[in-house]
Amino acid sequence: MxxxxxxxxxxxxxxxxxxxxxxxxxxxxEEQREANWRKVKIYWVRPELPEPVAxxxxxxxxKHPLWPVSPFRQVAVITEEVGELAQAVNDDDLSHARQEAxxxxxxxxxxxxxK
Length: 115
What we know:
Blueprint: E1 2-6, E2 15-16, E3 37-41, H1 51-63, H2 71-90, H3 94-113
Antiparallel strand pairs: 1-2, 1-3
Helix pairs in contact: 1-3, 2-3
């Protein structure tokens, strides 16, 4: 899938999933600002996701639609989820650990996609 990303926008998640013909001319978050779009390839094929990860990814996107711009904050989110996974393993709660592992995978995918 090809999408377009505004590379001058401070909101790195300013993207438009459109064809080249109907890409927007303005930033999606600051309408008064012209956007400079660049093509971005998204290589992830959604049907390959395991169901628990897909559910967690959808839930994460609905609950937190804006992904942090800073890679340091993105890694902090991943680290928090890994900590919760470690705690569930430490508590010997396998079902909760699997749920936390799906959340770790979901935030890692968001990191890879940059959104």
